[in-house]
Amino acid sequence: MFPKTRLRRLRNNSKLREMVREAEVSPGDLVYPLFVDEGISAPKKIASMPGISRLSLRDLARAARRIESLGVPAVMLFGIPKHKDALGSQAYAKDGIVERALRILKEESDLTLVADLCLCEYTSHGHCGVIRGRTIDNDRTLELYGKTALAQAEAGADMVAPSGMMDGMVTAIRGALDKEGYEHTPIMSYSAKFASSFYGPFREAAHSYPAFGDRRSHQMDGGNLREAMREIELDIAEGADIVMVKPALPCLDVIREARRRFPVPIAAYSVSGEYSMLKAAASKGWLDYTKVLGETLLAIRRAGADIIVSYGALDFAEAARETKTR
What we know:
alpha/beta, TIM Barrel, 12 strands, 17% strand
């Protein structure tokens, strides 16, 4: 009790504050998303995500060198193919855009390569699976997820990250990988992926707008914390090595509850809308982008995330390096 207890004592100087800091973020905690576009020959800026571009295959080696130099250890790959069809066949083609990108990055870098595993970027209708009528055929989609996981692992993916929120997707992917000798390839499952308007800029970046309807039949309702815990528990039981919560900032309570309940590594995806909001406000002079980005990542980490997927990963890493060299 005051005056014997004065919590400000441990805030008197920077060294004391560092010694008692409970949560920290470093570049080594981050994963940087990459969009690889089969239809371009040079980087193409994404209007709604300032500072982010779709890359061609020839851009990957240079991008990898920069990412590694900043101490960010991993990338997550999203592919934009030239041709799309109803079954998203370019997702699991041996010469698909992500498979080709994986081979290049495996040869040109030591980055950990995480392959996002879904069909929405590859289907002509923009949905995450096989369409029957106007709904997704869950079990038919699982077959294609298994084929995609195998194609990605064969191409050099160090980890696959299924994001379609199909029931049983981890079981299907684990079975497909194990059957072909990839039992050591881990799965980072988008276990609690909520239907969210924060994904808007991503849809532009990945050319993945649904041609009809929305994704609320498989992505989670925003009000359901208990259901999120069930989803995570099921994915762990099916063999997920890492579970993910998405989007991150609107779901800090979900991250915290998952951290309290489950002993597995937890990832959080700080999504396109979160990034674009900070960039837009900074462009108006309303906030300091670098400082607010750091606070945002720290909040996600403090909530319990071990791994953070962030479009601001390189900006954060550059700021951290500048701070160290001062």
